[in-house]
Each structure stands twice: as structure tokens, then as C-alpha cells.
Amino acid sequence: MSQFKFSVGPWNIADGTDVYGPATRKPVSFEEKVRRFAELGFSAVQFHDDDAVPDISSKSEKQIVAEAKEMKALLDKYKLKAEFVAPRLWFEPQFRDGAYTAPKKEDWEHAMWRSYRSIDIAHALGCDLIVLWLAREGTLCLESKKPVHAIRQLIESLNRMLAYDKKIRIAIEPKPNEPVDRSYAGTMGHALALASMTDDPKRVGGLVESAHSIIAGLEPAHDMAFALAAGKLWSVHLNDQNGVRFDQDRIFGAENLRSVFNQVKVLMDNGYGSHGEYIGLDVKAMRASSDAYGFKHLENSMKVVELMEEKVRRLDQKAIDAFVAASDYEGLEMHILEHLLRA
Ligand code: XLS
Ligand code: MG
């Protein structure tokens, strides 16, 4: 049994469509996803704004809140909470050159409208966290934006959200690229630097996604440690990634077991979850998997967390300290490998 509470977003149940080919699995209704999430033992659902309120830009503020309240009733039916709401500012063509760093004023204003609606939806769903994956905040053509001006406009966007609602908290989910070519906020270091430049830094923190750290060439456990040291690790997206390439959203543990062990260790060692934080997943079943196995990657990821929790609990820290005291790092390395490899 895990010591953590888990959360997941509906986009984790994907139909196999990728940039090179169509769906390989039948679509699953939103309610069926929520029902299965509850059945699998998740405690909360992660939302995009337009997961809670489809076609959000075509609706009035009143209608948006009404539909968000209907979504809350669905969560209550399955005894699930909402973890966060993330404005999905990478779908609408209007945001093709960025949302918070959009060069055209009307595009930036629409991004702010979507962000305020995300805050309204969060309140209706009963949560106080907004996640910003800054998917298109950067450049495709390097000279298309003045970087200092764009970054200051991004900070102003955060300030306007913080001013719109005095309770909301914002977790920035950094990623160094994809879909944008060069991101303005590629790592947790950038996210926490942005937080420090806002009008209310204590309400701006971070979400570490394992794969995003790997794509940046960094160790996810150290990115988590960096945010934990600042008291600002407010969510995680545990998954895995085979090296620096497109975001694979592989199951947690699929590629990098040593790192995965250290990610769980740093979370356990530092009381992650004790202030209500969830273990969030951001994983997708392989395109080749059939309909019957369209949820198995969620079960597998949770199972890996539980197995690694057991490995962390059984770790002998005194033995580690003794190897370090003797500067016997080869001995320490083998001690850890045997610990991981033995049943
Ligand atoms: C990128 C993001 C994305 C979700 C949440 O990894 O987490 O998967 O849409 O914004
Ligand atoms: Mg993610």
C-alpha cells in the first residue's frame, strides 16, 4: 500500500493517435475514465480547463462556472477530488506563437481570459492550484520575439492571475522544448526564478515532470530536490523517458530504474504529500497496446511507485554513511545496485 495519494488526468487515456498515425484504440468517455480512475485507487483528477468545460472559448463566464459545477458533481459521485486546473493554451490556433508571450495583444488578452476562467473552474471544482505547462512560451524562429520583453510579459501574466484571485496558487511545469523549439522556462530553476520575480512569490511554485527533466539533460530527483528545498514542489508528473528526444510519457520506471528509485527516495525523505500534494502521473499506453490494456500503464506506474517505496524503506542509510566516510564509492555503488537488483 503506497503512503502517497495519486492523481491522473484524462489525457493519460489516449487513443494512440500520434503525429505519424491515427488512433489504434477506441475512444473512452469522460465518465468512464473517471469511473476507472476511482476503481484503480486514484484520489484526484487533474484537469485542463477544457476537460472540465469543453469548447470553453465559445462560452460565457456564467456558463463556464455552471458546467464546472456539473463536473464537480461527477467527481463527488465517484468520491474523487480535483488536483489542479491547467489552461490548455497550446491547442487554439490563436496561441500558435505563444499565449503569455504572444506578440499580438489580443492573443495575450485571450490567454489571460482563459487563465481567469481556469481559476473560476478551480474554485468550482474545489481546488486552489493552477498548473501552467508553458508549452508554446518560447520561439520557433529565434528572432520573432524580444526575449527580455517576452519573459517580462510572462511575469506580468502570472501577476495578473495572482491579482485576479488572492488565494490561487500557481505551479509552473517546465519543459525545455516541444512543441516550442526553444522554451523560456525549460527547467525547475527557470520556474522558481520566475516565481521570485512575481508580486507574490510564495504563491508560485513548481511541478516536476520526470521526462521533462530528462529531456533537459537533468536528473529528475535533483529537480524535485531543488523545488523541495524551496518548499515549492506542489505537484509531480511521474513518468519516464528514453533519453533526449520527443516527450514519450512512458510509464514510471520504464527506462531509468536508478533515477526512479531516487525520485521516490527524495519525495519520501522530504515529506512530500504531507501538505496534501499528490503523486501525479502523466503517462500514455504504447500505441501498439490494444483496447483491453488502455489503463494498464496507470496501474503499472502506481505499482512501480509502491515497489520503490519498499526499496527506500529497506535501504540501510548507516551503511551508505559508512561507505561515504571511508570514501569507498565503488563499494557504495555496488551496495545500491545489489539493493535494487535483489528481491
Ligand atoms: C505536459 C503537460 C501536459 C498536461 C498538463 O507534460 O503536463 O501533459 O497537458 O498540462
Ligand atoms: Mg506533464
Question: How is the secondary structure organized here?
Answer:
Layout: E1 6-8, H1 30-40, E2 44-48, H2 49-52, H3 61-77, E3 81-86, H4 105-125, E4 129-133, E5 138-139, H5 147-164, E6 169-173, E7 182-183, H6 188-196, E8 204-209, H7 210-215, H8 220-229, E9 233-238, H9 257-269, E10 279-281, H10 296-313, H11 317-325, H12 329-341
Parallel strand pairs: 1-2, 1-10, 2-3, 4-6, 6-8, 8-9, 9-10
Antiparallel strand pairs: 5-7
Helix pairs in contact: 3-4, 4-5, 8-9, 9-10, 11-12
The structure holds D-xylose and magnesium ion.
The site of D-xylose (XLS) has 9 residues, from strand 4.
Folded structure, characterized:
The protein has 343 residues and is an alpha/beta fold. The protein has a single domain (6-312), classed as Divalent-metal-dependent TIM barrel enzymes (TIM Barrel, Alpha-Beta Barrel). Helix content is 43%, strand content 13%. The strands form two sheets. The chain has an eight-stranded parallel β-sheet. It has a two-stranded antiparallel ribbon with strand order 5-7. The protein is globular. The model has no long low-confidence stretch (mean pLDDT 98). The protein binds D-xylose and magnesium ion.
Portion of residues in beta strands equals 5-15%
Mean pLDDT: 98
Order of helices and strands: EHEHHEHEEHEEHEHHEHEHHH
- The total number of structural domains is 1
Per the CATH scheme, the topology name is: TIM Barrel
Output the CATH homologous superfamily: Divalent-metal-dependent TIM barrel enzymes
- Structural class given helices, strands, pairing? alpha/beta
> Which strand order does the major sheet show?
3-2-1-10-9-8-6-4
Shape designation: globular
Number of helices: 12
The amount of helix comes to 40-55%
